[in-house]
Amino acid sequence: MVDIYLSVNNNEEMIHIPVTPPEITVTSEQGTETFETAGYGIIRIIGSRNLRGISWESFFPVHDYPFLRDTSLKGQEYADKINSWRDRKLPVRLVITSSGFANLDINMACAVTQLNGAVGSNGDYNYTIQLDEVDLLNYTLNNEEELTLAQFEEIISRLDALDERLHSIEDTMIYNYMDSNMPEWARETIQKLMDKGYLTGVADNELGLTMDMLRIFVIMDKAGVFD
Predict the structure, then answer these.
(1) Rounded to an integer, what distance in angstroms lies between the CA atom of residue 1 and that of residue 158?
(2) Using an 8 Å Cβ cutoff, are 82 and 112 in contact?
(3) Which residues contact 52 (CB under 8 A, 6 or more apart)?
(4) Of 8-12, 109-113, 152-156, 223-227, which range is least confident?
(5) 17 and 36 in contact (C-beta within 8 Å)?
(6) 2-134 is classed in which CATH architecture?
(7) Cα separation, 118 vs 8, whole angstroms
(8) For 93, 100, 205, 220, which has the most beta carbons within 10 A of its beta carbon?
(9) Residue 33 has what pLDDT?
(10) pLDDT digits (tens, 9 = 90+) for 148-165
(11) What is the spatial distance between Cα 140 and Cα 187, in angstroms, rounded to a whole number?
């Protein structure tokens, strides 16, 4: 069994989706970075996962069906409540729990980017909804709504994660020249690429190499790609 909850302001207001949709679509794209080498074509580096998107189709009932998960509102009243949150520009907490054969558990802050609906012939309100994950830090910087305790704690958690990531970065330098700044373990490979004409600088002969690029070139060199 799957239950879907939407809430704002640390559960100050909550909606339990009354009719579980037959299908829930979750999208999660992966960012990548590409660069072109003179002798080995395009190389792609895997980046960070982008924010998720979730959507489904269902209906808000006006009739008392036996399978309902919630009966606190009727029909379009559910849509009106969600739209009131949208009008206030509030981030919405989406929680999806599952049990039994289902295996879907989600807890994320999001924005309701689409809510389209129409009243059917039997009075029920048929709708489609799209929710996109939001970064609460960016949201707070651009909106006047006060933070709840839960939102504040999530922001602190994100800041801690960013701090750890910054400290884990070995080197953010750009290596433009074959000089003492170039890591010793990469010099032989980079010199080989320059001698063969595979690697040439731009502007003031700047190579523009990052640490990731150095690692990739060295791995390729050890594999015999440049021989």
Answers:
(1) 31
(2) yes
(3) 26, 27, 28, 108, 132, 133
(4) 152-156
(5) no
(6) Beta Barrel (2.40)
(7) 24
(8) 93
(9) 63
(10) 556 666 666 777 777 666
(11) 45
Among candidates 52, 35, 182, 37, which has minimal Cα distance to 104?
52
Residue positions counted in the chain: 227
Rg (the chain; Cα; Å): 26
Please give the span between the terminal C-alpha atoms of the chain, in angstroms, as a whole number: 59
Nearest to 210, CA basis, from 79, 35, 50: 35
CA 195 to each of CA 47, 187, 189, 199: distance values in angstroms, whole numbers, following the listed order: 31, 12, 10, 8
DSSP state of 16: E
Tell me how far apart the alpha carbons of residues 51 and 176 are, in angstroms, rounded to a whole number. Answer: 34
pLDDT at 7: 93
Residue 94 φ/ψ, nearest 5 degrees: -100, 125
Instruction: List every span in the chain annotated with CATH 2.40.30.
Output: 2-134
- Mean per-residue pLDDT of the chain: 81
Give bridge partners of residue 41 from the DSSP assignment.
37
Per-residue pLDDT of 51-108, as tens digits, reads: 889 999 999 999 999 999 999 999 999 999 999 999 988 889 999 988 766 677 889 8
The one-letter amino acid at 64: D
Total H helices, total E strands in the chain: 5, 9
For tokens 């929680």, the residue is: 95
Q: Name the pLDDT band for 48 (thresholds 50, 70, 90).
A: low
Distance CA 126, CA 76 (A): 9
